[in-house]
Each structure stands twice: as structure tokens, then as C-alpha cells.
Amino acid sequence: MTIQIPKQQKKEMLSWLLEGLPNEACGLLAGVRQDNAIAVKKFYGMHNVDESSTHFSMDAREQFAVMKEIRENGYMLLANVHSHPDTKAEPSEEDKRLAYDSGIIYLICSFMEKEPVVKAYRIIDRKRVSKVSIQYE
Ligand SMILES: [Zn+2]
């Protein structure tokens, strides 16, 4: 499985996550699914109401408004994005526990190295993790 992210959306996503430092930052990616292609069309930066460097929670009202906009654009929610300011781009135990949607992709961006590292996963039944490749175009 591959998620396709246009350069523009990648740029918007990384700058939003960078702005959130030293806290974890989060967002949503929306777009279309056709056969095996998962194509991102839009990035939504979301506020981390936890304001923490090790946790994030999205604001329910903001999430509701964004989901409405996604539907109105004819897109679907493809991925949940968040940053790890000081740890690897791998789902933490908490990330797995909170991965309530097996149908979407979880993107994690680590800022622990000099350059940001972004990885994508599917998390099934809140425990089984499989990698998803990312194609930037
Ligand atoms: Zn995490």
C-alpha cells in the first residue's frame, strides 16, 4: 500500500508540524482512494489541545468542522498525522491504543534527527502495525 502526497501538501504538513515544536503537533490528510491509489489532496493542521511534547489530542469541534469540509469537497479522510519531537517515527504504545480507525493511515513525523523523518503505518485492532510507503509527487 502506498500513500501519494503532493509536494505542496508535504510542505504545508511539515511547516505546521515544525511550528508546533517543542510540542507534538497534529493534522489530517484528506483526498481520494481509487483502486490501490491513496491520493492526498489536502492537509489540515489541527490544534493539539494537550499542548504536550509527548501526547496529542485533537479538538472535537475542530475535527467535526474539518470532517464536514472534507465531505463537502468530495474527499475522504485518509490519514491522521502527528509529530514526535524527541522520539523515532514509530507508533508509541499509546499511539496504537488510540488508533481507533483501522481504515486510515497513521503518519508520524520525527524531529529527533537533523532532518524530519516521516513514516506511515496502518494499525489494525489497535495493536498490529504494518508499514505503508509514501510517494511524494
Ligand atoms: Zn505518537
**Bound molecule kinds, no repeats:** zinc ion
Helix-strand makeup class: alpha/beta
Overall outline = globular
- As for the number of domains, it is 1
Low-confidence residue ranges: none
CATH architectural designation: 3-Layer(aba) Sandwich
Strand fraction equals 35-45%
- Using only C-alpha atoms, the radius of gyration works out to 14 Å
Task: Tag the structure with descriptive keywords.
7-stranded mixed barrel; globular; binds zinc ion; 137 residues; 40% strand; Cytidine Deaminase, domain 2
Layout of SSEs?
Layout (H helix, E strand, L loop, with lengths): L1 E4 L1 H13 L6 E9 L2 E10 L13 H13 L3 E9 L8 H5 L7 E6 L6 E8 L3 E9 L1
The chain binds zinc ion.
The site of zinc ion has 5 residues, from strand 4.
How would you describe what is shown here?
This protein has 137 residues and is α/β, with parallel strands linked by helices. It has a single domain, classed as Cytidine Deaminase, domain 2, CATH 3.40.140. Helices cover 23% and strands 40% of the residues. The protein is built from 3 helices and 7 strands, in the order βαββαβαβββ. A 7-stranded mixed barrel has the order 1-3-2-4-5-6-7. The longest helix has 13 residues. The radius of gyration is 14 Å and the shape is globular. The relative contact order is 0.22. Bound molecules: zinc ion. The site of zinc ion has 5 residues, from β4.
